[in-house]
Structure formats: structure tokens, C-alpha cells
Write a structure and sequence with these properties.
CATH topology of the largest domain: TIM Barrel
Largest sheet: 8 strands, parallel
Number of helices: 19
CATH class of the largest domain: Alpha Beta
Number of domains: 2
Structural class: alpha/beta
Family: Belongs to the malate synthase family.
Bound molecules: acetyl coenzyme *A, ligand LL5AMS7Z, magnesium ion
Organism: Cognatilysobacter lacus
CATH architecture of the largest domain: Alpha-Beta Barrel
Radius of gyration: 22 Å
CATH superfamily of the largest domain: Malate synthase, domain 3
Helix content: 40-55%
Strand content: 5-15%
EC number: 2.3.3.9
Catalytic activity: glyoxylate + acetyl-CoA + H2O = (S)-malate + CoA + H(+)
InterPro entries: Malate_synth_C_sf, Malate_synth_sf, Malate_synthA, Malate_synthase_TIM, MS_C, MS_N, MS_N_TIM-barrel_dom
Shape: globular
């Protein structure tokens, strides 16, 4: 790593940029670095306090406490208030495509015909320095309308005219992650502040001039105080960039179990800029397992059985719809993991049928839009929403029939763990980790989209199953070290294949082995894995 120490007397003293990537000088200008350092100095201690609160809340859960609706905000839940009116560009969000931030994906997604493209620095991006710099450059080119790309096979990619493009939203990384390549006064800056701050610094005025934002998706929040912190950050960004207050708009992912108990509160904390909540189902399941890591009575069945039709997930999504519609916000659905299967027509039809059923469930329940993983799924999702949702949204569906209690949200579904389910968790963890370490944050594995959220479910389940004691597979086999080691032993041969990240397979096996055997559950896979990047 090389270091660029900015210490002229021009207000950017103390900023160190570690690592080099093509084009970084044009992004990390002295003015941009000063702006980022200002955000760090103003908000880092508040971020650390919020992370400490997460740790103490988890200690309570580990001691047997259950999440509960807050007593100190009853008045806020009971009162009538609505979020600020939504901008025209975000009235109709029926199909949103998400994807990593490399130039080809950015162009394909913006050209895809979806209403929105969420450019993802979180679950779908491995945050190598090169990926981050390239992603910020691609997004800057996209906003300027100049982004082009030529692939190694010679295929050329260019943007469609602006009016035909999806609306751009950006998902910065969550509060838990550091960006180690930018150090301020000797501390790594918050990854989310780096992603959102740098994007806003270079693009906010151009987007505001077109009434297009900036628009952000905020991931992995756990409380209204964390939402308030984002609100403070974005108000400061608006102030420094001379944007009108409330110009920056956000959609918040409700993808942690604690946040499900604070939906109203999160909307309230961000009421001047929030436009919707989204059911981030994969991180939500991950968070459920993590929250109840020490609760023997809340062990989930294998990943494939934990579908949105399970009562605890249906309760969460219906409560999200009810809450959003009461407050004038969009209630966005989530992502089915199936992707098109190019090699087998029957399997492809079955996969598409699962996606269609998922979208039908969402639109029938009252969601105002949904996510797809792949451009080929857009027509399918759009057809389902067009048929059932003739208007731009369906916020008139107030879902007053929904009554969700704490027990509805925390009661686990019945189910089992098969040998295939156990082994699949081991394989997915190893293959995903290997790809991530190799710089690829979203990969197809057995024709399912796997990203940091889906892989996390597999990882924390393995830890919980092995630490719960006295669990058995559905064929009676004990869930123990022997079962885990046997499953791991089959995987080193993957290093000789051409799957994404093959060269990092053995490293991934070692890391999963350590994570699964640890006495304490690591909060995020990406924390130890990030120490190995770059
Ligand atoms: C839990 C959550 O957080 S969900 C959000 C995070 N997850 C995501 O964003 C999923 C994004 N999806 C993807 O990355 C990909 O679709 C994958 C990895 C699942 C599958 O990728 P591939 O196997 O490469 O797909 P495939 O080969 O069928 O791609 C065909 C074309 O579609 C493009 N494409 C595929 N997915 C996307 C996408 N999400 N956005 C834009 N273009 C895409 C490919 O670039 C390729 O383009 P080309 O024909 O110009 O070369
Ligand atoms: O970010 C989405 C999720 O499901 O997790
Ligand atoms: Mg997520």
C-alpha cells in the first residue's frame, strides 16, 4: 500500500489515503478529501456510540431478553404525522434492479427498463480499493451521462438517453464498516460516510438540477438513533454543498430484527427526507439468527425453508406495508434469489415461477414495488405489478387488518435441517467468501444469487447449529464437528476449477473454519474478511 499524506495548510491536514487505483486523483481531490474529513470529524464519535449501543443491546439478548416495541416512543407511534411529499422521480418504483458498481453493470442496469437502479456498495460489492474507486468513477460518469465501457470481448456499452434510464439510487455501506484506505487523524473513516459523502460531493448538484436526488438506500440500521445519525449527516452534506434542506432522499432497509420494532421511529427520524422502507429479507433473516444466537428455542431450520411465506417473515413484511402507508411512504418488497438458468429450460421455468409467485405475494400484500437481481427478471416482475397495481403505487391500501405482536415477529417457524441443507451452507460460505476475497461481491451459486446477506445466513446458521448442542439432521445424524469437517473436506478441490474466487478457496475454508469454531459469533463476516482485502 502506498500512502498519500495530505498535510498542507489548506484544511486537509491529517488525511492519509492508503492504496492506489487508476483515476483516484480525479476523485480524491484536496477539496473532496477535506469534505470527507469534515464528515469524519463531526460524526465519528456518534457512530462509535451507536455501535456501542448495538453491542450492549446484544449482550441483553444474549442474557435472554427479547426485542420489544419501545416504551419511550409510544406517543410517536400513536400520533398522526406523515413523511414529506415524495419527489416525482420516486412516485413509481414498481421494479428496481440492484447490482454492483462496475461500469458494465451500471450501464446495463440503467439501460435495463427498471424504474430504479440501486448501485450497491454494500451487499453486492467486495470493497477492494480498486472496486470502490472504479465504482465512484462509474457513477460519476453515469450522472454526467458520459459513462462508456468496452469489455475484453470487444462489446461496447453506452448509456441510453437520460429519459429512458432507470433512476439512480446508491447504497452506501453500513455503519459497522470502516474504510481503512482513508484515515483521518489516524483513524479509518466510516465506510458509509466515504461512499455517500464522495458520491454526494461529486454528483449532488448535478442530480439536484435534474430533480434526481441524490437518492440513497440506507442499509442495516438497528434503531431510530442510527436513522437520526444518517439524517444529521445528510443535512450537513446539504448544508456544505448548498443544497436545499431535504434535497437528499432516502429509503431505509428494514433488514435487522431490532429495526422491525422501530419502523415508525425510523420514518419519524428521517421524515423530512425518507420516501420508503424496504424489506431486506436476507439480512433480516441473518439478523434474526444473530440476535438469537444464544436462544436455543429460536434456532431456524435450513435456509431454503425460511421463505417469506413463513409467519414471522409475513408478519414483518405486512407490518412494514401498514406502517409505510399510514405515513405516506412507499413499502418496497425485496429480492427473490432465483436467477435465470440458461442451461436447462425446465429448471429455468421452475425458477421463474418462484420469482413470479414471490412478486405476486408482494403486490397482493400491498407492496408498492419490488427488487430483481437480473435484467431478464424485469419483464416478469413488471407484468405482475402492472396487472395488480394500475396506479404508480398502492398507498391507499392501509392494511388496517394487520395486527402484529412481538411474538409474531420473534416466533421461529417449524422445520428441519437436511444433510443437503447443512452442506449447502458450508459450500455457499466457502465459495462466497472466496469470491469476495477475490474482489467479487455477488455471484451465482447453483443458480441462486449469493451476496453478503445471503451468505451471512449460511455462516451464522452453521455457528448456531454447532453451538446449540444436541441438534440432529432430519435423518438423525448429530449436527457436530464431524459433520462440519466432512462437509469442509470436500471443498479444496474447488481451487482447481474456474469458479469465481477459485484461487482463494483454501483461504476461505480456513476463515470459515475459524469463524464457525469461535466461542463468540463474529457480528459480520465482512469484518474479518476485510482485514484480508488489499
Ligand atoms: C440481499 C441483497 O442485498 S440483494 C442486492 C444485492 N444483490 C444484487 O444486487 C444482485 C445483482 N445481480 C448480479 O450481480 C448478477 O445478476 C448475478 C451475479 C446474480 C448473476 O450474474 P451473471 O451470472 O453474470 O448473469 P448473466 O451471465 O446471466 O448476465 C447476463 C447479462 O446481464 C447482466 N446483468 C446481470 N445481472 C445484472 C444486474 N443486476 N444489473 C445489471 N446487469 C446485470 C450481465 O452483466 C450480463 O451482461 P452482458 O450480456 O452485457 O455481458
Ligand atoms: O439488502 C437486502 C437484503 O435482503 O439483505
Ligand atoms: Mg441487505
Amino acid at each position: 500500500m502506498s500512502a498519500v499524506l495530505m498535510e498542507s495548510g489548506d484544511g486537509i491536514r491529517g488525511i492519509e489515503v492508503l492504496g492506489t487505483a487508476d483515476g483516484q486523483a480525479g476523485l480524491l481531490t484536496p477539496a473532496a478529501l477535506a469534505f470527507l474529513a469534515g464528515l469524519h470529524r463531526r460524526f465519528e464519535s456518534a457512530r462509535q456510540r451507536r455501535l456501542q449501543t448495538r453491542r450492549s443491546r446484544q449482550a441483553d439478548f444474549d442474557a435472554g431478553a427479547l426485542p420489544e416495541f419501545r416504551a419511550d416512543t409510544v406517543h410517536l407511534r400513536a400520533a398522526d404525522w406523515r413523511v414529506a411529499p415524495l419527489p416525482a422521480a420516486l412516485q413509481d418504483r414498481r421494479v428496481e434492479i440492484t447490482g454492483p458498481v462496475d461500469p458494465k453493470t451500471v450501464i446495463n442496469a440503467l439501460n435495463s427498463g427498471a424504474k430504479v437502479y440501486m448501485a450497491d456498495f454494500e451487499d453486492a460489492t467486495s470493497p477492494t480499493w480498486g472496486n470502490l474507486v472504479q465504482g465512484q468513477q462509474a457513477l460519476r460518469g453515469a450522472v454526467a451521462g458520459t459513462l462508456e465501457f468496452t469489455a475484453a470481448n470487444g462489446k461496447h456499452y453506452a448509456l441510453k438517453p437520460f429519459a429512458q434510464q432507470a433512476v439512480l439510487m446508491v447504497r452506501p455501506r453500513g455503519w459497522h464498516l470502516d474504510e481503512k484506505h482513508v484515515q483521518v487523524d489516524g483513524e479509518p473513516m466510516a465506510a458509509g460516510l466515504f461512499d455517500a459523502g464522495l458520491f454526494a460531493f461529486h454528483n449532488a448538484r448535478a442530480l439536484a438540477a435534474k430533480d434526481r436526488g441524490p437518492f440513497f438506500y440506507l442499509p442495516k440500521l438497528e434503531s431510530m438513533e442510527e436513522a437520526q445519525l444518517w439524517n444529521d449527516v445528510l443535512a450537513q452534506v446539504e448544508h456544505e454543498l448548498d443544497l436545499p434542506r431535504g434535497q437528499i432522499r432516502v429509503t431505509v432497509l428494514i433488514e435487522t430484527l431490532p429495526a422491525a420494532f422501530e419502523m415508525d421511529e425510523i420514518l419519524y427520524a428521517l421524515r423530512e427526507r425518507i420516501v420508503g422502507l424496504n424489506c431486506g429479507r436476507w439480512d433480516y433473516v441473518f439478523s434474526y439468527v444473530k440476535t438469537f444466537r444464544r436462544h436455543r428455542d429460536k434456532v431456524l431450520p435450513e435456509r431454503a425453508q425460511v421463505t417469506m411465506a413463513q409467519p414471522f417473515l409475513r408478519a414483518y413484511s405486512e407490518m412494514l406495508i401498514q406502517t409505510c402507508h399510514r405515513r405516506g411512504a412507499h413499502a418496497m418488497g425485496g429480492m427473490a434469489a432465483q436467477i435465470p438458468i440458461s442451461t436447462d429450460a425446465d429448471a429455468n421455468a421452475a425458477a421463474l415461477a418462484k420469482v413470479r409467485a414471490d412478486k405476486l405475494r408482494e403486490v397482493t400484500a400491498g407492496h408498492d414495488g419490488t427488487w430483481v437481481a437480473h435484467p431478464a427478471l424485469i419483464p416478469l416482475a413488471q407484468a405482475v405489478f402492472d396487472e395488480r397495481m394500475p396506479g404508480a403505487h398502492q398507498k391507499h391500501l392501509t392494511r388496517e387488518d394487520v395486527l402484529v405482536t412481538r411474538d409474531d415477529l420473534v416466533t421461529p417457524p417449524l422445520g428441519s435441517i437436511s444433510r443437503a441443507g447443512f452442506e449447502s451452507n458450508v459450500e455457499v460460505c466457502v465459495r462466497y467468501l472466496a469470491a469476495w476475497l477475490d474482489g467479487n461481491g455477488c455471484v451465482p451459486i447453483h443458480w441462486l444469487m449469493e451476496d453478503a446477506a445471503t451468505a451471512e445466513i449460511a455462516r451464522v446458521q452453521l455457528w448456531q447449529w454447532l453451538h446449540a448442542g444436541d441438534l440432529h439432521l432430519d435423518d438423525g445424524t448429530p449436527v457436530d464437528e464431524t459433520l462440519f469437517e466432512r462437509a469442509l473436506m470436500t471443498l479444496p478441490s474447488l481451487a482447481a476449477t474456474d469458479i469465481p474466487g477459485a484461487s482463494r478457496i483454501n483461504e476461505a475454508i480456513g476463515l470459515l473454519d475459524r469463524l464457525t469454531h469461535g466461542d463468540e459469533l463474529e457480528d459480520f463476516l465482512t469484518l474479518p474478511a476485510y482485514r484480508r482485502l488489499d
